[in-house]
Design a protein that fits this description.
alpha/beta, single chain, 9 helices, binds glutamic acid, Glutamyl-tRNA Synthetase, domain 3, three-stranded antiparallel β-sheet, elongated, Rossmann fold, 303 residues, 10 strands
Length: 303
């Protein structure tokens, strides 16, 4: 049955910390294929909120390469660095759930509660009930529910059932960082809601961030999108590709190299594609192949 009336808004949200690499291409391709398979909208958002890590020219390079590969955004490109007013407004609306924290990294690590799945030290709640004498605010944190009320679960379209105990596995998390930048967790939730995103398709390295994002959506009173996290591309040593090690060698105008990069990303996702003659041919076969792959995984046809 056709589902053309169902609204689907997806997005690709690269951080411009370097050129598009083989791993980020997999995330871009999956989000693009899923949007096209649903006859949906595909947005591109440049996540340059961490201005210290953004590399000048990287965003423009990513956008040019996406265009060369035939992935064209529906609608204007959004830049997080130009949307700080939205993050401030969102933080203001949930002020009753946040508190200023005066702890530094060292103090949090010294509490030895361990690290969250994403590597951040679990926060022991030191400043929950007020800053200690003589301390000033370094970061802004969101209070998570008490143990027993802190379980967040969701069904990922690729990874299946995921649950996390926010209190024990993350602790109260940062919305505004000590360096003054808004945290990724806040920016991504505000933007996905503001852009009406219904479907987040991205790399599995963000699976562990998703329960925090769902909790933040609930506190802000915005909808929770569907999630699909695709496997992360790793090098021979099992390490996640970095912008340095996995840069794509696709020169402008080199259609053969563009096709090869797309084909490798598609095969990594499990699409059984033969080498196509052209970019057009690639997209003509890749979109139905994605629908079929997902229909097999989700137990229901997409279109
Ligand atoms: N900006 C993030 C990254 O490049 C992706 C964020 C997301 O898709 O939610 O890893």
């Amino acid at each position: 049955m056709k589902q053309e009336n169902i609204t689907y808004i997806g997005r690709f949200a690269p951080s411009p910390t370097g050129p598009l690499h083989a791993g980020s291409l997999v995330a871009a391709l999956a989000s693009y294929l899923d949007a096209r398979a649903h006859h949906g909208t595909w947005l591109v958002r440049i996540e340059d909120i961490d201005e210290g890590r953004s590399v000048p020219g990287a965003a423009e390079g990513i956008l040019a390469l996406l265009a060369q590969l035939g992935m064209h955004a529906d609608g204007e490109i959004v830049w997080q660095s130009r949307r700080k007013h939205l993050y401030q407004a969102a933080a203001d609306t949930i002020a009753a759930h946040t508190y200023p924290c005066g702890c530094n990294r060292r103090e949090i690590a010294d509490s030895r509660l361990g690290v969250a799945p994403d590597g951040a030290a679990i926060y022991p709640g030191t400043c929950r009930f007020g800053l200690q004498e003589g301390r000033s605010m370094r970061s802004l944190r969101l209070r998570v529910p008490e143990p027993g009320y802190d379980v967040i679960g969701f069904t990922d379209r690729f990874a299946g059932e995921i649950t996390q105990r926010l209190h024990g596995e993350s602790g109260d998390f940062v919305l505004k960082r000590a360096d003054g930048f808004w945290a990724y967790q806040l920016a991504v939730v505000v933007d996905d809601a503001e852009q009406g995103v219904t479907d987040v398709v991205r790399g599995a390295d963000l699976l562990d961030s998703t329960p925090r994002q769902i909790f933040l959506q609930r506190v802000l009173g915005v909808p929770t999108p569907r999630y699909l996290h695709v496997p992360v591309v790793r090098n021979e040593n099992g390490e996640k590709l970095s912008k340095q090690t996995g840069a794509l060698a696709v020169a402008p105008g080199d259609e053969a190299a563009a096709l090869e990069a797309l084909l490798q990303a598609a095969r990594f996702l499990g699409l059984p594609l033969e080498k196509p003659a052209s970019l057009d041919a690639f997209w003509r076969t890749a979109i139905p192949a994605w629908s079929q792959l997902l229909a097999g995984r989700e137990g229901a046809a997409l279109t």
